[in-house]
Amino acid sequence: MPKHLRASALTALTVAALAAGTVLTAPAAGAAPTAAAPKFLSASQLPPHPSSTWTAGPVTEGFPEALGTCVSTEGVPSYDYRYREFRTDLDTSAVQLTVVADTSALAKALAKHYDDLIRTCADRLEKNDPDIEAEGRDYGSLPVEEGAHVRGVHTETSGGSTDISLLSVGRDGRTVTVVRWGQMGDFGDAPVAAFKKTTTIAVNKLY
Question: What average pLDDT does this structure show over 166-186?
Fold first, then answer.
């Protein structure tokens, strides 16, 4: 999402039991040891751009601002987040986030929470900024590892600026990954099939 949308304040989110009674709470004593760090997408694995190549940034500790409009850390434990940003020479960008939970149950709940945030993102954007019209679309689930889900969010400002994002959430065991692709345009400009392939690669590549 562009900077003018990142500034939109999000409503407070309270996370209750999200999966089989699981609540996102701080890890208990004696939690499982830290696994090997998950791997990230490379630039060549992003949806091809028709006139520019992708450039991959370094893997960075923290939570990426590029996910802040639809996905946030509010209401979840303080995990160790890592991300990688990607850019083209034009207006197209992407980002991948990974986070390792302490159990598979917590990771399942976290993945559902992130998917719920993306599912409700358009409504929250419109509620928090009267100058924005937003629409979300569900592009379905992918049969990879413990599953992934792909959605799209289109926004248009009163000034005529339009932006399209594709977002996905996937899980492999205790690890959750979120991938976002975005550029100026609308749903007709979104490379849905290629993004589904990118999401499948991202989840398979974690380990």
Answer: 97
